[in-house]
Amino acid sequence: MNFKKKLSLYFNIVTYISGTFILMTLIVIMTINFLRDARIFAKDTGNSIQTGESTESRNDSGNNENGNGDDQPIIYNPGFELVDSPNESEPGTQEIEESAVRIEVVDYTGVDLYSDMVILSLRAFGYLPERKNEEISGSQETVIIDRSGKGYGEKIKNILKLDNLVIEEDPDREYDITVIIGNDFMPPP
Fold it and tell me: What is the separation of C-alpha 143 from the centre of its chain, rounded to a whole number of angstroms?
């Protein structure tokens, strides 16, 4: 073999090995990100399904193919627990039309993923929140502010699994609820 053929063969082998290594690395990175961000394969926490206001135990005998015991599909909201979709066919189960509640989500963290998680969780229950990103200026606390005086804040608090609720009735309000995502916001594992 002459020098050019050996060099060409060596170059091809190095190229194939490098390409294979890069491809395998990208596959591993994509798999890790998919499993972490999508959380599709979250561990089951038992036979309970979070319905937004209370946790109901269900036995395996009454479940349908969705595993939730009725014909309602399970809605997935990233970062939070699996929840049943609200059953709108039963009269009297919802006091208000969720889309009529004006909600703003104000993000002080600079991490869009956090506000996306909150917005998707609220949309899963029929709310139509608006996003506002604010400049990070000092420390901002995560809080839900209910300006409606109609108890909407308690429902939002239960959906988002947040602890801090402030009620400030304001008849001239632009939004009924303000969800402030502050520097202390910790998404559920």
Answer: 17
